[in-house]
Specification:
Length: 201
């Protein structure tokens, strides 16, 4: 693990591709940069606009994986910089928290890392307005009908104009639960990647 951390520090200096790990002059090697694909906006119940920087495939998928599971410096910065142009207005960034047990096991809360990096770019403060339950069944690979609601809870405080931040949106179930927990509808949802098919426009 110590060797992984040391090597991870060189990723942030542009010596290695942040996605695949091969030597690269910039943050991504040529093939990984070419694999990035835009993705359409979508609506999340009850009608909140969701914007994602990339489709959840290729290098973008690997960057999210690194953000969630590997201590590679720089992944969140690259993803946050890609999300920043999608943020319009808003009063605060609210990360969608990871299940408590998963955060304890991995030592990482990916949405918080992403929101913190995004805050440094767009200037909005990060508000940890949502708390997560200790555990919920893994949603990865499950269809919409196989994903139950998540019992997020909102801390006291004004969340008007909140921009919800997460690493990836797929069926929208987790995000719907986060939205339902807030006392008022958020202004916007932004994520690094989207694997969903619902689109608008």
């Amino acid at each position: 693990m110590q060797a992984e951390r040391v090597r991870g520090e060189t990723y942030g200096d542009g010596m290695w591709c942040l996605a695949c790990g091969v030597p690269a002059a910039g943050k991504l090697c040529g093939p990984c940069a070419c694999s990035l694909r835009p993705t359409p906006e979508r609506l999340v119940d009850p009608g909140v606009l969701a914007r994602s920087a990339f489709a959840h495939s290729g290098a973008a998928k690997q960057l999210v994986h690194n953000l969630k599971y590997r201590p590679i410096a720089g992944s969140e910065g690259l993803l946050a910089a890609s999300i920043a142009p999608l943020v319009a207005g808003g009063s605060m960034l609210v990360p969608v928290p990871r299940a408590g047990a998963r955060k304890w096991m991995s030592g990482v809360d990916p949405a918080l890392r992403l929101a913190t990096a995004l805050s440094g770019i767009v200037g909005l403060p990060v508000s940890r307005a949502l708390t997560a339950p200790l555990w919920w069944s893994r949603h990865a690979g499950a269809g919409r009908t196989g994903r139950g609601p998540v019992a997020f809870r909102a801390r006291r405080g004004d969340t008007a104009g909140a921009v919800l931040v997460d690493d990836v949106i797929t069926t929208g179930r987790t995000m719907e639960s986060a939205i339902a927990a807030l006392p008022v509808l958020p202004a916007l949802v932004v994520t690094a990647t989207s694997a969903g098919r619902m689109s608008i426009g």
